[in-house]
Write a structure and sequence with these properties.
The protein has helices at about 1-25, 35-45, 50-55, 60-75, 95-115, 120-135; strands at about 75-80, 90-95. With about 140 residues, it is mainly alpha-helical. The two termini are about 20 Å apart.
């Protein structure tokens, strides 16, 4: 049991180290890897709402809002109010020209750092499931 637990903690440490390395790649642009992922998702759509981002990426709405505000302050995205909708509070997001340039640079950087990696999606899904289970107990 102790060996399995130590093995698990070692794998968690490796995961944490990998996460830190991903954040290092985006640090130069004053954004976190999570913000990069939001920007990446926004760049795939013409326009998207913060609520849709929250739902699709399984991130809380307040967390999405904080990350979006930082991206907006850095001028990486634009906020557009929809005048077609009666509810003027609804905002749609689109990537800005500056955001597109940053995404191109970061995409190139990621391609150089992690070329042709076959991401073990099943293992990642299992790990996330296990971490969720642990955090509920």
């Amino acid at each position: 049991m102790v060996d399995r637990m130590m093995s698990f903690f070692e794998e968690l440490q490796r995961l944490d180290n990998a996460w830190r390395a991903l954040n290092q790649l985006t640090k130069e642009y004053e954004i976190s890897f999570e913000q990069f992922m939001l920007l990446k998702r926004i760049s795939l759509e013409k326009r998207i709402t913060p609520t849709a981002l929250s739902d699709e990426l399984k991130i809380s709405r307040p967390a999405v809002s904080r990350k979006i505000n930082q991206l907006y302050r850095n001028e990486y995205l634009n906020k557009i109010r929809s005048f077609e909708n009666e509810d003027q509070r609804i905002v749609e997001l689109e990537i800005s020209n500056k955001g597109n340039r940053i995404m191109a640079e970061l995409d190139k950087r990621f391609d150089e750092k992690i070329p042709d990696i076959d991401f073990p999606t099943q293992k990642i899904t299992e790990t996330v499931s296990l971490l969720r289970k642990i955090s509920r107990d």
